[in-house]
Design goal:
about 180 residues, alpha+beta, 5-stranded mixed sheet, 5 strands, about 20% strand
């Protein structure tokens, strides 16, 4: 049990930057927390995400605000994309754990429409172009990651799932990579 759910470490992030900017990994965590709970920017958004920022170790109110604003932009981009309508009306399963002999993982979003099952892994990496995103996919093993997820879903559901990587920040656009 300890290996499957390791205890969370407490970090305190102290920045010396003159302009508040949150670490990219933290923005990614906040975006994933919001998607996991299907909570998108509204009047209460800052109050919703602040505890996750504090839990992650961010303590400066200006940096917390900056992290939440950056997360807000990425999530608004997702909500404005036509894919959002499909996701919003689909049967959705968030943060689906899976174990295979070659590794374990957590699927960001597994959803089903009339077209079948889909696996989505959201990426908040900031990339400047589609080709840079393609490089990130192969260099970081994102393609192998979602292939493992597809095998796990095939084993569990006895159904083939289409896999997608959704980059939320390709030169300030959302890009979908069907794998």
């Amino acid at each position: 049990a300890r290996e499957s759910d390791p205890p969370q470490r407490v970090w305190r992030i102290v920045s010396k930057a003159k302009t508040p900017r949150a670490p990219a990994w933290l923005v990614g965590r906040l975006v994933h927390e919001a998607i996991h709970r299907w909570h998108f920017p509204d009047d209460d958004f800052e109050n919703f995400l602040t505890p996750f920022a504090l839990e992650s170790g961010l303590t400066d109110p200006k940096e917390i605000h900056a992290a939440i604003q950056e997360s807000r932009h990425l999530l608004e981009r997702l909500r404005a994309h036509p894919l959002f309508t499909e996701l919003d009306s689909a049967e959705r399963h968030h943060e689906v754990r899976n174990d295979l002999p070659d590794g374990r993982g957590i699927i960001d979003l597994l959803y089903r429409t009339d077209a079948g099952w889909f696996i989505i892994d959201f990426k908040t990496d900031e990339v400047r172009s589609e080709s840079e995103a393609q490089s990130a996919i192969s260099q970081n093993g994102y393609d192998r990651q979602v292939a493992r997820y597809a095998r796990a879903i095939s084993d569990q559901l006895k159904a083939q799932a289409k896999t997608r990587l959704i980059f939320l920040n390709v030169n300030h656009r959302l890009e979908i990579f069907d794998l």
